[in-house]
Predict the 3D structure of the following.
Amino acid sequence: MKRIFFKICVAAFVLLVFLVISLVVWRVNLAHDVDAKLQAIRAAGLPTNGKELNAYYPAVPDNENAALVMTQAFALMRNYPDSRSNEIDQIQSFPARWQHPTNEQIQLLTGYVEMNSNALAKMAEALKLPKSRYPVDFSPGFETLLPHLDKVKELALLSEYRAVLAIDSGQPTNADTSVKDIFGMARTLDEEPALISQLVRFALVRIAIVTLEDRLNAGELSDAELTDFADVFGQQKETNFIARGLIGERAMAVSVFRASFAKTKQWLTDFEGPQDQPSAPQRPSLFLKTTGIFERDLLFYLGALKADISFASFPPPQSLAVTKCLQQDGRGRT
């Protein structure tokens, strides 16, 4: 019995050593594979963390930076001090284009636009500058705050309201400026390497297009107006902004896969309410580092994002063909 017990103990010990060695080898290979992918991203001149993303977002001299003047316009924005502010929020955009605004809405918007005339003037001043970089710090990674996105969309809606008022008053040519301004505000987000920033940019472009449709329905464009709008649309020729957003999203997300249990729990708690400031970073737990649970997910994530960025980088008409193939593949998987 002693010999049998001894043999069992030896076998168990050998098995344990084998499992430990296998885990170590697997973990080392996993770390090597992840590191190789991150190095390949850096070698391509792309960011892999928040600090590198700050450098990837092109710096702009202050005297050429439209975003800095836009932030001044944000500070000048005002709203009604009473319940009418809720009515403004409820109006938002005008999705039902066939519905003419009521007299009450016209009165409400007239006062709203007038009280924000200084903000609109400062915005027009900002759009005269050639480049843009908002004062964003991406070093917190996943927790980066982008408060200017709400403000730039509010200012775009304000410009749309101004166009609605111009058309309603029988002066449709006065709406041209609002259309150009909304396109201009969208361009201030061109270089911002965050997916949500590019989605907001698309939303602004949509607002501009819908506003232009209203302008066209209100009367024919003169030759001078056609020339101006041709120039505006010519400045919108670049199309691969989603790729830029995904590049930034990847860089910000890497730290998520190396977070501690406490940090992950904190994020889940933060989702239940707003967070004014990014929380302090925490080291990943020993368990997560040893087992490589999140590292394996990170390896898959990096591979998936590489494919997504490649697809998003195709110019037209290849991008349309890729979209069609992906849609067909998605229908086949459901």
